[in-house]
Q: What sequence folds into this?
């Protein structure tokens, strides 16, 4: 509870005594590049293969001849939009970006770079962390959209070259009983997960004490806590928005 | 001028600074000395606002810093320059960007004026033509000088240095000391240096305050320190053979 209170105070401190809007625009743009553009290859690769493997495994499990092959496309679509794209990508994102944010801020803390900002009269939390959170809130939903498109494309490639289901059936399944709210739900999740990963990792890094060992520990803790927060909020959001 | 009045600071149950009162005058190099763990750096961090004291007052030219409104506190902080023990240069920025940083954030100066000011400060610390180098590409002594340039670029009124000579060879240390003393006199700023280096004490100590076991035990200048009559200070000053030989002559 004490950590939660400290975390909430940390988040509220981001909005006090801010620098000029222009400063944040520049920093946020830089963070978008670091957080988003640099994650495209990893997220793309993972999504493509997860989509492909989901297609193969779903087809493998559909042994009942009464179930049409097109169900494979439907399952891959809903699995991707509801869970794989926003949640699995968030776990990967926490590992790559979360650890990087915590390591970066932790190093700045132990080398007194954060103290240097404070002495200059700059709100270091706001200056360093706010652009990271805003950059993540902009880029992570875009990464989720990319992940969704690539996972479904991966499924298509598996269908085409794996021979487990015809491409026509796969496309039929993709269009079958489509509920547009699943996309809205995925985007809501992406915003929540993006905020959790960036803010938790920043918090862990910002309050690092000690030396190089503690920076490593902060990075590990950032990934662990982010993953737990993602899974917990995933359940809460599903309960709140999907269960009638 | 900076006045510290009855400052007390503790961490949990451990009192690190007890009833410290001291005045650091303008245009002088003020030194805080003492053994490791005596509370020197904690005192400095209290003065610049990185720690909040348990009680006591800190006045910057009669302006109350501890109880000041956030805006006044920010204004005072923007008059402060600080050189950290490890330099604390932003490692993702070049030397030029590091020095220009306070101007970018704290002023509305035109870009060419900022660059002129950066080059002036680089020249002042004798580091011309290092603008585009990264902090990792320059030596420890050069990093300290870049740190000094960054601390003075915004025409700071108060300059604080935490162990400016740590990790430097004696020749580079003396150069840094002299540079700090020159800057203090030239710009008539209030400089406070935390050190345990006796060479610095003898070279630039215009006002010296000795901290031991959380208390201020002695104050004076580099001439008086040799004959303080305070046992703890004598043990500190004459800890090495060279100083003992000097005393015995």
A:
């Amino acid at each position: 509870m004490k950590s939660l209170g400290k975390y909430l105070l940390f988040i509220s401190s981001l909005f006090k005594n801010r620098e000029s809007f222009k400063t944040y625009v520049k920093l946020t743009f830089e963070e978008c590049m670091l957080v988003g553009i640099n994650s495209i290859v990893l997220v793309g690769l993972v999504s493509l293969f997860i989509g492909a493997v989901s297609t193969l495994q779903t087809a493998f499990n559909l042994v009942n001849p009464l179930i049409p092959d097109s169900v494979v496309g439907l399952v891959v679509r809903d699995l991707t939009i509801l869970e794989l794209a926003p949640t699995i990508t968030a776990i990967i994102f926490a590992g790559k970006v979360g650890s990087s944010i915590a390591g970066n801020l932790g190093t700045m803390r132990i080398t007194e770079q954060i103290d240097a900002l404070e002495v200059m009269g700059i709100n270091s939390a706001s200056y360093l962390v706010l652009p990271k959170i805003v950059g993540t809130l902009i880029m992570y939903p875009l990464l989720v959209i990319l992940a969704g498109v690539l996972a479904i494309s991966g499924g298509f490639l598996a269908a085409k070259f794996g021979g487990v289901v015809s491409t026509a059936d796969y496309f039929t399944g993709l269009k079958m009983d489509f509920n547009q709210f699943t996309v809205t739900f995925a985007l809501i999740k992406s915003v929540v997960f993006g905020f959790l990963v960036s803010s938790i990792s920043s918090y862990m890094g910002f309050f690092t004490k000690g030396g190089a060992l503690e920076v490593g520990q902060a990075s590990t803790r950032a990934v662990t806590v982010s993953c737990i927060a993602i899974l917990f909020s995933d359940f809460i959001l599903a309960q709140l928005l999907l269960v009638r | 001028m900076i006045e510290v009045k009855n400052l007390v600071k503790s961490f949990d149950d451990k009192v690190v600074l007890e009833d410290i009162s001291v005045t650091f005058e303008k245009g002088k190099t003020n030194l805080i000395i003492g053994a490791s763990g005596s509370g020197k750096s904690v005192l400095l961090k209290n003065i610049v606002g990185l720690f909040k004291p348990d009680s006591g007052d800190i006045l910057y030219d009669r302006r109350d810093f501890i109880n000041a409104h956030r805006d006044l506190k920010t204004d005072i902080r923007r008059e402060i320059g600080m050189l950290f023990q490890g330099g604390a240069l932003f490692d993702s920025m070049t030397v030029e960007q590091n020095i220009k940083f306070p101007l970018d954030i704290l002023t509305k100066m035109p870009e060419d004026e900022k660059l002129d000011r950066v080059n002036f400060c680089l020249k002042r610390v004798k580091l011309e033509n290092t603008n585009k180098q990264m902090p990792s590409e320059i030596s420890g002594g050069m990093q300290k000088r870049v740190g000094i340039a960054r601390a003075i670029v915004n025409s700071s009124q108060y300059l604080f240095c935490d162990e400016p000579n740590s990790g430097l060879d004696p020749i580079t240390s003396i150069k840094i000391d002299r540079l700090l003393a020159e800057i203090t006199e030239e710009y008539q700023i209030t400089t406070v240096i935390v050190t345990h280096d006796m060479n610095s004490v003898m070279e630039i100590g215009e006002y010296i305050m000795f901290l031991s076991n959380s208390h201020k035990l002695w104050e004076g200048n580099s001439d008086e320190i040799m004959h303080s009559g305070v046992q703890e200070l004598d043990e500190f000053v004459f800890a090495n053979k060279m100083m003992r030989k000097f005393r015995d002559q």
Summary: Strands of chain B lie at 2-11, 14-24, 29-33, 55-60, 63-64, 80-83, 158-162, 190-195, 207-212, 215-220. The longest strand of chain B covers residues 14-24. The two ends of chain B are 38 Å apart (CA to CA).
